[in-house]
Queue: 2 jobs
Job 1
Amino acid sequence: MSNRIVIDLKFDPVAVRQALVTAFPDFEVINMANPANRERDLSGIAYAVCWNPDHDLFHRMPDLKVIFSGGAGVDKILAIPTLPKHVPIVRFVDDTLTNRMSEYVVLQCLTHLRQVSTYAAMQKRCEWRELEQPEAADLSVGIMGMGVLGQDAARKLQVMGFNVIGWSRTPKAIPGIETFDADGLDDFLGKTDILVGLLPLTAETTGIYNRTLFEKLRQGGALGKPVFINAGRGKSQVTADVIAAIRDGVLLAASLDVFEEEPLPASHPVWGEERIILTPHAAAASDERALFRLVERQIARFEAGEPLENVVNRTIGY
Ligand SMILES: NC(=O)c1ccc[n+]([C@@H]2O[C@H](COP(=O)([O-])OP(=O)(O)OC[C@H]3O[C@@H](n4cnc5c(N)ncnc54)[C@H](OP(=O)(O)O)[C@@H]3O)[C@@H](O)[C@H]2O)c1
């Protein structure tokens, strides 16, 4: 095995190049963003760091030992037909990413609580009027997906005073948070005023945020109607149902960071929805330097015969 590592990150190429200047001092780095590397022989290489990798990448790496995901989600990697069956996939789990996601979640919850969009519209009309002001403690934020990101967001929402509840596939015991497992979904939804989606994309979670689910959220809470925030994956959400639910008064508003099709086409009606705060899959970016540090640590563990951390469970799909 040669000391070479393949990088196939469809991130900002300049940021990747800069982070690579000091990363992997013991390796020859083959950055697939460099056209000179497109036809390189990749046999004999044990490690690949990828995000949206080229579909023939794994086919070209017959000696691959570990795949490192450039992001927390691995749905795109798992969907690649040539993905080798027995090579472990390590997720990107790091405070830099977790903190960014919690910033996004807390920001969106506070934005809806403090009616920022309504005040912005009033400013345009030079309208001076104070709106009714519920407190965070008057609302329950229900988080779907109580993993690394969901649990950190929950803790930070609690600091702001929100009542937080959580839903996950398997039961959890988290101090101060009422939790529900897969069977408790309807009870969870019935207690939720602001729904936060932080689920990975799997067969079970595809299309899960749909009209039927929105209709089960609590009506008549401190904001009057429920709010939906999604920073998980776009294919978990039926965007047409979000729009319809807002127009019909099932939902008050939404914050959407992710969409079924990305980049979101300019013709999509969601762009024009006043009650939807839209961001371009920007809730929590991966910091390239932190990613490469994590990969270096995991390679050191692997080569010392220690177990890799944050390995994807292929059977459950995340
Ligand atoms: N928008 C962005 O910028 C951005 C950035 C980073 C990540 N993400 C997304 O955020 C997702 C979550 O990341 P993470 O690190 O928190 O993942 P994680 O630690 O693996 O947590 C996933 C959570 O979802 C739950 N879950 C999965 N399938 C479920 C199902 N069918 N029913 C109920 N609960 C289910 C898991 O339940 P258990 O606890 O029972 O296993 C777990 O609590 C990623 O997969 C990615 O798609 C988005």
Job 2
Amino acid sequence: MLLEGAGVAGSRTVRRWSLAGTLVAAGVLASGCSATDLPRFGWPEGVTDQAKRMQGFWSGSVIAALVVGVIVWGLMFWSFIAYRKRKNSPLYPKQTKENLPLELVYTAAPFVLIAVLFYFTVTTENFVLKTVPNPDVNVNVTAFKWGWDFSYDGTDMPAQNTTAQQVETDNKVHTVSEPTEVPILVLPVNKVIQYTLSSRDVIHSFWVPDFLFKRDVFPYPQQNNSVNVFQNTIQTTGAFVGRCAELCGTYHSAMNFEVRSVPDDVYQAYLKYRQQIDPATQQPYTFGAALAQVGKDIPSCGQLCSPRSYTTYPIDPNRAAKQASQPQAGGK
Ligand SMILES: [Cu+2]
């Protein structure tokens, strides 16, 4: 009789808790909060749609883990207290075994947890890796020892272009690493950007920490069957440092670049200049000269049109140097 009473009280408690849980979930949904409004629990703040989605998944997973943790801790402390040794109590409390409902619960519950985590892992990963057929911008990223060559599809560089380190021999607008200059990859904000990666020599890795995403860059991606295309949408304007994340040789650490996420009118003006001859040099506008010119045309561009990178600076290739490389004047 006593046990039956406890069972009824127990199921009532369970019902109450699940009702409370449902109410909290409904409240969160009704308030219009999205997963990205949740606390980040140490997750860095990414700048792309994809990074935000990953953050939502991370926050949800941590909250789910905490809920499970609280339930487990609650059960632990409840049993410590409820079944503690009392005066005149028997040496051991009543031992329970072969309790089928209980065994079913603690076998099924972890499976449910894993299934839910698996579902959100797959849907988040699919979202991050999804590609649409017609991205707004196509950039080709070619890595080499030890720098980057960024080129824009659909652009046409004037014929005089002769960049010493240029990897591709096409007429596209190219931005290439120079020993004294960090290349700036100018991209429009809130547009779907497709990155097509390939390497001229060894394996490198394209990494922009603020994207919370990196992808190895292989030579001969087609022959290697490597998936060398990904897309993202940058949500905020700004400058974001980029690095090579695969140890690729002596000057691996010098493979810095900068992503400049700018409003669309600035991006269009930038590409327009890159496809014109700079009267000052009689050569096509370099990325720095084009940025400086756009900064004059569109003063609201401000620091975003700074001709030099300001999130990082070139590394001195002199091996005998006794000092760390220093930021350069007019940026970094
Ligand atoms: Cu590298």
